[in-house]
Design a protein that fits this description.
Structural class: mainly beta
Radius of gyration: 24 Å
Number of strands: 28
Largest sheet: 8 strands, antiparallel
Shape: elongated
Length: 409
């Protein structure tokens, strides 16, 4: 595995033949900002320019703006870059950043490798804010980390390999952790990100550079993509709701090895969402509608305002209401309903098996072994997020669930 040094003799912003053979690509050619744009934008308008073979943050950004992102989304990767910062300066590099209008800033979704001048910063810093940390999550051993002072070049590297994360500073490993582990969620839910439900959940996203109101410089930004690994996942353990988050006031509980959703006294929408994102997968789940049965399985969904889940819903509904069809919860409504002649495939009041397969922009569903829909949709293809079970509003609903299993693709 290659280790890049900020002090090597290789020409800046270039790749050796060996690096090319290993799959490395440049994110900055040293001449232009092609491939970069504003966060949540279509062009580059922020305080960034190319100066002497570097990407320079002019220092006119703030917490609310001044972020630039790559055009391309990255999932698993090895990323290396050189950086230096002004005296007292503050910047950072973020990854797995998700763009949506409701996400005003990238750090509510993307983890940050913090770049800051610890020595000369104007305010006292907590350890979770210092240079080289996984911001507000994991910290290195500060007694051993070696960082060149403001105005001098450093090299940093991140390896993100299917959730196993390693940080380096100037060639030395500084931090190692597993994203989406119990330890990771404990840190997320007890600190700065406790009221930021989508922080760090994305398995893929944009690379982002931050202008935080201080000049900073970047060069030799290189990335090598790593392969995705498939895995088998049991989403429900038959004993409790570990691995799930409840949203709303409706009832979710476990009884006799079954996951049960039931309308509560508020008779509002309710959701039970996986705490992790699942983007490409083949899911099977069994359900039994005991009362009304108006429910659903959300795919690539995200939490909005701590209560509402937005995304695409595979319908679970009473007879005649398109179980297995796909509904978009914001914007377009029904994307596809099932043919009328397939309505009698649902076994109301008995156990049914729903299968959902989603890969890229393609969604397929089956009910009790019969194909219900098969569609391609560009917006779904660009989405990512959680799996969530729903209780419809109106009251009087009770649905039982079991054997929720998926294979990632």
């Amino acid at each position: 595995m290659s280790v890049f040094s900020a002090c090597n003799t290789q020409e800046n912003n270039s790749l050796t033949e060996k690096e090319k053979a290993e799959g490395w690509q440049l994110l900055f050619d040293g001449k232009s900002l092609d491939g970069w744009r504003d966060y949540n934008g279509t062009a580059l308008t922020g305080p960034w320019e190319v100066v002497d073979g570097t990407i320079q943050a002019n220092g006119h950004g703030s917490d609310a703006n001044g972020y630039i992102v790559t055009d391309k989304i990255y999932e698993n990767f090895e990323l290396s870059w050189d950086w230096k910062i002004s005296k007292g300066g503050n910047s950072g590099l973020l990854y797995h950043v998700v763009e949506r209008p409701r996400f005003a800033v990238p750090y509510v979704t993307g983890p940050e490798y913090q770049l800051i001048d610890d020595i000369n910063f104007a305010e006292p810093l907590e350890d979770w804010q210092r240079c080289g940390v996984d911001y507000a999550m994991y910290s290195p051993d500060f007694s051993t980390i070696k960082i060149n002072p403001a105005g001098e070049w450093n090299n940093s590297k991140i390896i993100f390999d299917n959730g196993h994360v390693t940080y380096f500073m100037n060639g030395e490993k500084t931090i190692e952790f597993d994203a989406w582990s119990d330890d990771w969620f404990n840190r997320k839910n007890s600190g700065k990100w406790s009221h930021t439900p989508e922080y760090g959940l994305a398995h893929k996203g944009l690379i982002c550079l931050q202008d935080h109101g201080y000049p900073a410089w970047f060069r030799n930004i290189k990335i090598r993509e790593l392969p995705r690994k498939t895995k088998e996942v049991s989403l429900f353990n038959g004993e409790n709701l570990d691995g799930w988050d409840k949203y709303g006031t409706e009832l979710w509980y476990v009884k006799d090895g079954l996951l049960i959703c039931e309308s509560g006294p508020d008779k509002q929408y309710g959701y039970l969402a996986t705490r992790e994102y699942y983007d490409d997968f083949d899911l099977t789940v069994e359900f039994k509608q005991e009362s009304d049965g108006n429910s659903g399985v959300f795919i690539r969904s995200f939490v909005e305002e701590d209560v509402k889940v937005n995304g695409w819903q595979v319908e679970v509904a009473p007879p005649g209401f398109d179980t297995g069809g796909v509904y978009e919860s914001y914007g377009r409504g029904w994307l596809i309903q099932i043919p009328d002649e397939k309505e009698d495939i649902l076994k109301y009041g008995d156990w049914n098996t729903l299968r959902v397969r989603i890969q890229g922009d393609n969604v397929q569903t089956w009910l009790n072994g019969k194909e219900m829909i098969n569609i391609r949709d560009e917006k779904i293809g660009a989405g990512q997020g959680r799996i969530a079970l729903q209780i419809h509003d109106g009251g009087g609903i009770k649905v039982l669930w079991r054997n929720l299993r998926l294979t990632t693709l």
